[in-house]
């Protein structure tokens, strides 16, 4: 099981779009994948809630009543399995504290899931804030994928994430592996080139080669309650996410070899 937290401390950088469409790319390659919505705004859940999801089977029940993660997985009509979120996740720290026990709980839950879902990739759509909710996903992850939209505020937020991940390393006693993904890129605009250049200056080889361009299909498919491969599989947006999938396979292979 390889676990990826998709996380930036700034909202509206394409984190939910990336979580869903990257999972769909995994599925297109006939690889098992599990989606976990760990955002109290539940944007990923909202995309599919109209298709008959049981809204009482949500991630907060894992914390509140110790419901196993396996019991919370619901299949979407497109075959992707999802653990939904709701606004109660916002109360995670006030109800359960901010200590290591709370931060490690999701990791422990995924470890129990592993015997029956060992081959899964787990993609976690995180809350855009540096707090217990998102850091729980970081604790559980093998890789943090940081979407950075082509604007300067996203760069500042990515730097905050980088500092937060570095601060966690003494606690975790390991390097928090991370990669940075440029989203909403428009090669016609000078700012896209400037943001990419600044990302490479700040984060070096941790910036992915793949870029997710601004595509109409990516905005429209979410509005229709679909991922881009359902909505327009031959679109440039679909090609971008498939390219991202293949680049991440190389990253995963290298990280996995390091741990052997």
**Helix percent band:** 40-55%
Instruction: Give, in order, the helices and strands.
Output: EHEHHHEEHHHEHEHEHEHHH
Poorly predicted regions are none
CATH homologous superfamily - what is it?
P-loop containing nucleotide triphosphate hydrolases
Number of helices: 13
Distance between the termini: 14 Å
**How much of the polypeptide forms β-strand, as a percent range?**
15-25%
Can you list the strand order of the major beta sheet? 3-4-2-5-1-6-7-8
Taking all Cα atoms into account, the compactness measure Rg is: 17 Å
What's the architecture, going by CATH? 3-Layer(aba) Sandwich
Name the overall outline: globular
What is the tally of beta strands? 8
Give the biggest sheet. Answer: 8 strands, mixed
Count structural domains.
1
CATH level 1 class label? Alpha Beta
Class inferred from helices and paired strands: alpha/beta
Instruction: Let me know the average pLDDT.
Output: 89
Here the CATH topology equals Rossmann fold
What does this structure look like?
The protein is α/β, with parallel strands linked by helices and 260 residues long. The protein has one domain: 3-Layer(aba) Sandwich (Rossmann fold). It contains 13 helices and 8 strands. The chain has helices at residues 15-28, 43-48, 59-64, 69-72, 92-96, 100-103, 105-113, 132-140, 152-172, 190-203, 216-223, 228-231, 236-259; strands spanning 2-6, 33-38, 74-75, 81-83, 121-126, 143-149, 178-185, 207-213. It has an 8-stranded mixed β-sheet with strand order 3-4-2-5-1-6-7-8, with helices on both faces. Strand 3 and strand 4 form a beta hairpin. It starts with a strand and ends with a helix.
């Amino acid at each position: 099981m390889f676990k990826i937290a998709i996380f930036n401390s700034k909202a509206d950088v394409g984190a939910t779009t990336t979580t869903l469409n990257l999972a769909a790319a995994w599925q297109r390659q006939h690889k098992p994948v599990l989606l976990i919505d760990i955002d109290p705004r539940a944007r990923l859940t909202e995309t599919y809630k109209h298709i008959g999801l049981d809204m009482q089977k949500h991630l907060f029940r894992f914390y509140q009543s110790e419901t196993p993660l396996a019991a919370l997985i619901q299949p979407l009509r497109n075959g992707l399995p999802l653990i939904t979120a709701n606004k109660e996740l916002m109360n995670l720290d006030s109800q359960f504290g901010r200590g290591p026990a709370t931060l490690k709980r999701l990791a422990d839950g995924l470890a129990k899931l592993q015997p029956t879902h060992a081959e899964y990739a787990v993609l976690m759509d995180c809350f855009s804030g540096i707090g217990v909710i998102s850091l729980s996903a970081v604790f559980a992850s093998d890789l943090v994928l940081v979407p950075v939209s082509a604007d300067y505020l996203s760069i500042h937020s990515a730097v905050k994430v980088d500092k937060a991940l570095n601060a966690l390393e003494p606690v975790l006693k390991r390097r928090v592996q991370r990669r940075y993904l440029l989203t909403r890129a428009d090669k016609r605009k000078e700012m896209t080139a400037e943001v990419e250049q600044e990302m490479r200056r700040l984060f070096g080889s941790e910036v992915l080669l793949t870029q997710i361009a601004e595509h109409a299909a990516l905005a429209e498919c979410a509005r229709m309650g679909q991922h881009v491969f359902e909505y327009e599989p031959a679109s440039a947006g679909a090609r971008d996410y498939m390219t991202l999938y293949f680049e991440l396979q190389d990253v995963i292979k290298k990280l996995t070899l390091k741990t052997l």
